[in-house]
Design brief:
Elements lengths: L1 H53 L4 H5 L9 H4 L15 H10 L4 H19 L4 H19 L6 H12 L3 H10 L19
Helix pairs in contact: 1-6, 4-5, 5-6, 5-7
């Protein structure tokens, strides 16, 4: 009985000698990944802030020369990001709906597109308190742009764009997650409208 117990201890000892180095490597790799993520998160946040503030409408976005094709509705709502075939930061289905609603008024259309651009930033670009603040600052500019656009009811226009932007359960869930980063912020300096149409 004693030798069977000793044999078991020797077997465990041999097994430990075999697995300790691979186990140590796995633990070290995990720790390296954790440390990398701790340093990468601030960098990704700073990149997101810069991208949010840099993304602006162009006249091609407003005059329709950069208009995307109509997306397949199933594909448009298959992901949180949706489809942005013309790469202007505005989801194609939202962009086309704005053009349909305001086919002749470029001032209101420009303000609505700017607002849609900032709403999309909440879904796609926000990954920290700092990036939420940047998106909120740009959203504040867009709100003021809508107010100065001559839209009959700026609040109903914003609500309509919000409903277009957050039109699926996944997008609403993402909105809730992103708004956990909410913080105070001020106005972003400069013109409120990306374009003066």
């Amino acid at each position: 009985m004693f030798s069977a117990q000793g044999s078991s201890v020797r077997s465990l000892s041999r097994a430990w000698r075999v697995i300790r180095w691979p186990l140590a490597i796995i633990v070290l790799l995990y720790l390296a990944l954790v440390v990398y993520e701790l340093f990468a998160i601030p960098k990704r946040s700073a990149e997101a802030v810069a991208a949010i503030h840099a993304e602006k409408l162009t006249m091609a976005d407003v005059d329709g020369s950069n208009l995307p094709p109509a997306p397949d509705p199933k594909l448009a709502d298959a992901t949180v990001q949706g489809i942005d075939a013309n790469h202007n930061g505005i989801r194609d289905d939202v962009e086309l709906a704005i053009f349909k609603k305001y086919p002749t008024n470029t001032k209101i259309r420009a303000a609505a597109l700017q607002y849609a651009l900032t709403e999309g930033a909440f879904l796609i670009s926000v990954n920290s308190v700092e990036s939420w603040k940047a998106a909120a600052e740009e959203n504040g500019r867009a709100n003021l742009c809508i107010k100065g656009s001559g839209a009959p009811s700026d609040y109903s226009l914003q609500s309509w764009i919000d409903a277009l932007t957050f039109n699926t359960p996944d997008r609403n869930l993402k909105k809730e997650q992103v708004f956990s980063y909410t913080t105070s912020y001020g106005d972003e300096p400069g013109n409120v409208c990306d374009l003066n149409t």
